[in-house]
Amino acid sequence: MSEVEVLTFDKGVNRKKSPLLLSGGEVYTASGFSYNKDGILECRDAVTEEGEIDSTATSTVNMIHRYENSVLASAKTLCPGEVAYFNYIYQREKDGSAFTELNSMLGSDRPRTADYWKFTFMVDGESKKAYIDEKGYEWGIENPPAPPTVAVGAAGNPDGEYDCYVTFHITFPNTQVYETGPSSAATVTVSSEKISWSDIPVCPYSGSGLTIYRKLYRSVSGVVYFVTTIQDNTTTTYTDNETDATLQANSAISTTGYDVPPSGCPDVAMHLQRLFLIRDNKLYWSEPYIPFAFKPDSSISACREEEDLVALVPWSDQLYIPSRYEWYRLQGSSDVTWSIKKTFTDVGITNRDTLAKTRFGILGQWYDGVYIFDGATNKNLTEKFLGSTYFDNISNPELCYAYFDGLKYYFYHDVGGTDACIVIDFTYYPDIRVYHEDLVASARSFYTETGVSYLAKDGYEYSVSGTETIATDLLTGDLTFGNITKQKNLRYLYYDINTNSQDVTVTIYKDGMSAHTITLNNSARTRKRHGPLPQMDGYRFALGIGCSDSTGIEIYAPWVLEADLVGE
User: Fold this and answer.
1) Residue 97 — pLDDT band, cuts 50, 70, 90?
2) Total domains present in the chain
3) Is residue 299 within 8 Å of residue 287, measured between CB atoms?
4) Last-in-domain residue among 221, 248, 275
5) pLDDT tens, 212-228?
6) How far is CA 225 from CA 153, 250, 254, 255, 375, in A?
7) In sequence order, which ranges of 268-407 are alpha helices (DSSP H)?
């Protein structure tokens, strides 16, 4: 009496269940496939090496990021003469291929970025930088370190006691302008006499393409008004003969209280036209529309002191701030009304580099799996398919990172010293499927403006294009033909495949051991029965399919195994 088992491969991998208990369409392993077409397994897209970023043996590319016309990359590099790693930043034009080293940062964590004001702002837990194409700057311009000197001059218009101030006025090559906070005050009393300014501070800030001026201010009746702009960064003297009425027709100073962003921040994000930073348990923010201006009181404690914040996630119209223990939310429309609210979560995020914003929720890693957070609660997505033991075996959870391309979440990690990647496919969410990816990139990002993926591995940038030798493999669960207690004799394999003239190896496993192999090779889609198979009596059978060069192969579902029950 013959029995059949129908095999489909479209539900992805399940490593939590016993191979005997897999549901229809689930497999035990699957690697190198794309899962882009229902009912057909094809190999993933090929990638092609484009240009070197930093391929030295002691370096790892840990960030690649596109913004407007520029592609930035970071390489975690062992600094010569130092027993420490630092991030070296590289750049190329969007249509170019050659990367140029720009500068270095003092940290070695994966840099985090926020694009705003025609800048890419970057932090790595130690340094903070701002980039415009191939130009790199310190993110933060100190206020004038000392007041000017003001003294009584010749006869003139000013009359009274005045406080005098200087600010630095910087124009960047992208036309954005920042004016610092004022210096401390210098005071002078005159009686219908000019004011002689000297020792006007020179701005030490530097960088390619900058235009740096100084602006002078003087108080009238307690209000500080604009006097003049010194249109260079060298002149240190000025004679002031403006009347009070003239000054009062000018604009009042607007940068009082401005200071540099805090240092040592591990994450940055743009929300409500401000840049936000975290450090320890505190949330910091810039002035609206002015990402270089942070005020000393523009911060709030988001959680208890011993509970460090992990990341910043602007999602929809909300800013979420996870710690390792839970998720928090910034409530309010401005800094006047802002407060921190708890959510209904019972776990947070352990690794900021695994966070991904999606239309389904915010994805990220915790100790026992990848979770999805919906703004109020969260749940473990991978427990059903991988179990918590899979994550127990990750060698260093702090080094994991992830990438989301709009439908698929790629989770890169290290298991037992071997780099690995699992993919969570959201094509039919809330149903998801999980499978393994053989391509392990060290850095990857998705530029939503053009839908282009940027990736790096082995010190080079790669594009999704060209041809590549891609190995694929698949192993089904154990098939019992409806009765685990009876022996079966496998008789026939019904397959449906286009091998594209490549050798595809089909391995039949009997009771956990390889029992027979078949090599398939054709140039067009072929549906065929193979057999009779050699005598194979066993209780359970599994099917492995593998190819060392899978370009162009197509595995169509379903396949069928036919067996006779022994003794019947």
Assistant:
1) confident
2) 3
3) no
4) 248
5) 999 999 999 999 999 99
6) 20, 6, 9, 12, 46
7) 383-386, 389-392
Q: Which residue has the tokens 């043996």?
A: 57
> Mean pLDDT across the stretch 547-560?
97
Same domain, 242 and 267: no
Could you tell me if 126 and 110 are in contact, meaning their C-beta atoms sit under 8 angstroms apart? no
Asked whether residue 349 falls in the same domain as residue 459, the answer is yes
b (16+ CB within 10 A) / e for 301-332:
ebbeeebbbbbbbbbeeebbbbbebbbbbbee
With beta carbons less than 8 A apart as the criterion, state whether 56 and 42 touch: no
Residue 415: the pLDDT is: 87
CA distance 188 to 62: 55
Shared domain check, 302 and 276:
yes
Which residues constitute the domain of residue 223? 149-248
- Average pLDDT score over residue span 421-439: 96
Identify the pLDDT of residue 81.
73
pLDDT digits (tens, 9 = 90+) for 102-129: 999 999 999 999 999 999 999 999 999 9
Cβ–Cβ contacts within 10 Å for residue 472, how many?
A: 24
Q: Which of 217, 248, 279 is the last residue of a domain?
A: 248
Model pTM?
A: 0.94
Cα 362 from Cα 315, distance rounded (Å): 8
Dihedral of the CA atoms 182, 186, 189, 195 (nearest 10)? -70
Q: Are residues 94 and 227 in the same domain?
A: no
